[in-house]
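FAQ: What does the model actually see?

It sees only this:
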Amino acid sequence: MGNTNIVLNPPPARRYDLHTHSQRSDGTLTPTELVTHAHAAGVEVLALTDHDVTDGLAEAQTAANRLGISLIPGIEVSVTWQGQTVHIVGLNIDPTHNDLQQGTARLREFRQWRAQEIGRRLQKKKIAGAYEGAMRLAKGAIVSRTHFAHFLVDQGYVRGMQQAFKQFLLRGKPGYVPGQWATLSEAVSWIRAAGGQAVIAHPARYALSAGKLKRLFNEFRECGGEAIEVISGSHAPEASLHFAHLAVEHGFLASAGSDYHGPEKPWVALGKLAKLPAFCTPVWHAWQESRL
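And it is asked to produce this:
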């Protein structure tokens, strides 16, 4: 008799990108354009995670249905933690949930005031029309520092986006306005109330000592946070490996997202994320049957 042990090859891994932005916050593509671009790049599971707003999800879902791509409804909530801004991504949220919408409405109100204040501060430095210019670039969506940076580049005050932030928009610079965002517990509670999973976005970007990072992780876990971004468009390979080990050490699931904002930043591309290390448990490990 022949060998009855049949070995089946496992299905190929799906291509995930669980952190992207559209024009509804500080991205440059419409939700439809973003989904279309992701599909062309081979992304099979995409999360739209605009800053403090969910307005683009319905349009993105329509495009995803047409193209056969799985859309994960998401958001990126701005948090102030020990005087520093930290971003918490929410995945698989119900975008209509009242707690989430009321909480993020407060953040959007602050964003609007902050934009006006940035404009006033830049005006004092003889940079006229910055607020109005940023508003035009935002195209009716929420206004962010990114829009001010684009204005400064377009008007010739600086040569590039990085210089715009370093010269005008970072802490201690003329256009800097401190954030007054949600607390960590508020952000996680809004996401959980909306049925979602809370993820610390791009942890390598925060200038935190090992001790402070441990405190952030501990507080996040105590609030009900579930995952950290191990793979990010802003993480070097060694940083991704470091946070993969920290995810296991702290009992977190591992997420992967490009933090894509548009084709103007070709070094942050859709569909080209590195694979999660095999020893991590992906944030999507239980999604296949229940959510996708």
